[in-house]
Amino acid sequence: MRLWVCIALLSTVLCASAERPRIVQGMIRAGQFVRDAAGGTRDMYRAYKDMREANYRGADKYFHARGNYDAARRGPGGAWAARVISDARENWQSRVSGRGAEDTRADQEANRWGRSGGDPNRYRPRGLPSKYYTRDDLHLLWLCRSAVAWPGTMRLWVCIALLSTVLCASAERPRIVQGMIRAGQFVRDAAGGTRDMYRAYKDMREANYRGADKYFHARGNYDAARRGPGGAWAARVISDARENWQSRVSGRGAEDTRADQEANRWGRSGGDPNRYRPRGLPSKY
User: Looking at the 3D structure of the chain, how many domains does it have?
Assistant: First the structure.
């Protein structure tokens, strides 16, 4: 089984060509679905483990919603895993635990709320220790830790903003805190998108391959935009700045700038970057 899985995945990666066939695209989507489902299963288990550890009266709906929320944020595979696990758990509990149909309906309402992107803290009971975060909150804590490396006053304000977001977990977060969470996610995605754009530029310079520039433009924008709105924003700003500078300095002309921007937009919109991949470009890129 392991051998065939390896063969399938390697064939997916190495079949990078000017236009990937549909079957390879399907294999990529299937791989992403399986990856997200595995991650969603871990999220559901973490929520269950935290619920058992906390043993806090009235907190079960919060952990149900949180597990489903974290899993569904990964993508369709995570949402599928959360639904299957939640339904199996509730079916088993309704037959064995004796809690009744009303409790099962309330649990499933919390499950659906979390899977649909609703804030799990709607069900968070007062007094539940703040150590029981959602995955988004953990990302924000990681951002705050990373911000320690930033200079001076900037570091102080970033830490204050992120910590206030994480520690304001209550039964119903006010809108301003929700806005801060979205802002933190936007900044995180923008930082990641900037790294993606730099990696594409670095690879382009390293490859130094004739006709490959459009591929690397599309790839950087594609990778960045996959992170979310912040990544797409960073890719657009960087691409526009680069093309504006090149159109004035490099002397390549408006036609080349238009072609570059077409590749940038194609990648940002989710188009396969391999549309622009020249034959013979080493498979390491």
Answer: 3
13-40 pLDDT per residue, tens: 555 444 456 666 777 778 888 898 999 9
**Nearest partner of 101 among 112, 113, 110, 93, judged by Cα:** 93
Domain-embedded: residue 164: yes
Interatomic CA distance for residues 127 and 170, integer angstroms? 9
109 in the same domain as 22 = yes
Q: Is there a single domain that holds both residue 44 and residue 68?
A: yes
In this structure, are 118 and 138 located in the same domain? no
How many CB atoms are located within 10 Å of the residue 192 CB? Answer: 18
Structural domain that includes position 138:
133-173
CA separation, residue 182 to residues 61, 150, 189, 191 (Å): 24, 21, 10, 14
Please tell me whether residues 103 and 219 are part of one structural domain.
no
Q: What are the structure tokens assigned to 194, written together? A: 């900037």
Inter-CA distances, 246 with 50, 251, 253, 255, Å? 53, 7, 9, 12
3-state SS, 105-141, equals: HHHHHHHHHHHCCCCHHHHCCCCCCCCCCCHHHHHHH
Residue 119 sits in the same domain as residue 158: no
pTM of the entire structure? Answer: 0.46
Answer whether 285's CB lies under 8 Å from 236's CB: no
Q: 114 vs 14, 43, 108, 119, 254, CA distance in Å?
A: 38, 12, 10, 7, 48
CA distances to 55, 63, 111 from 98, in Å:
19, 20, 19
**30-44, 140-154, 174-188, range with greatest mean pLDDT:** 30-44
Alpha carbon 246 to its chain's center: 32
- Whose CA is closest to 228, among 189, 192, 198, 197? 189
